[in-house]
Amino acid sequence: MTEIQNSNSELVTQHYLGNTVENRPMYYLQISQPLDKTKKIIWMDCGIHAREWIAPAFCQWFVKEILQNYKSDPNISRFLQNLDLYILPVLNIDGYIYSWEKDRLWRKNRSPYMNGTCYGTDLNRNFNSSWGSIGVSYNCSSIIFCGSGPESEPETKAVAQLIEKKKSDILCYLTIHSYGQYILIPYGSTTEPASNSEELVGDKNFGLHKIIAKSTGTDDHAFLILNLQMYVAEKAAAALMQKYGTSYEVGSTSLILYSNSGSSRDWAHMIGIPFSYTFELRDKGTHGFVLPPDQIQPTCEETMLAVTTIIDYVDHKYFPGGAVMLSSKTKNILKSDS
Question: What is the pTM of this model?
């Protein structure tokens, strides 16, 4: 990360986030065109689960692609006029190192519990969103142990404090995992029946589509936002598939995968970030967490298409020249929220 900053100092700055349980410093990279205007933020983190090695690989690939192509690619050039990219390549540093040195399939961080008789909290069950309610364990030896309380872990707290501070400027929260080939939207903690509301949503890049709520929220506004998230996720999955034919399933975690609580994705959306997604990268279980090295590049290439589709959509939606066409009801709701 230091090398990236040093060799791209016109665009990249490295920022301290906090320290891990084992006292390793956490840093994120900010990719920002130096312009005299206030910009919004896209957040991306990778490696919250230690064993999901393809995730940090994608964060590195993403940074490389942006820096190599921002002058020549008109899409990247355009969104960097309006958006800053914040990338945390490895969220769970202690666990990641432990998975390289001791236990390839280690998932959690390395917090000691019960006087050091068991270790690790699942950081993606530790955020303050329906914490401890479903899809977790209170047993510290479990791989889905949710910690002693919301944000009990320094890694979770470091991320949450920064996001909370910047939330009014963050338009999209992307968290990269593996495996299963999913793009997941909120929420994981409820399986209530979906709304039956329908909306026409589209824009000049993606055409006009009718979308039906596939998740649930607390009011009509939540339904419509989730509708829009679903629509954009489907566009991203279609873009990804064009590269190598890899098929991704799209939907809310609780409806297409399993119920969970305390995830960063749900928390980010709950505090007001409009677009919030979990990517579960290749594969569907043949290799699982131990994805062969020859799949690193194709996985990164196709995922790049999906992620930039989302960023493009957000950019066109929130900045002049890319107005989104919405039904009058949706327009009014989204206008009142902005």
Answer: 0.86
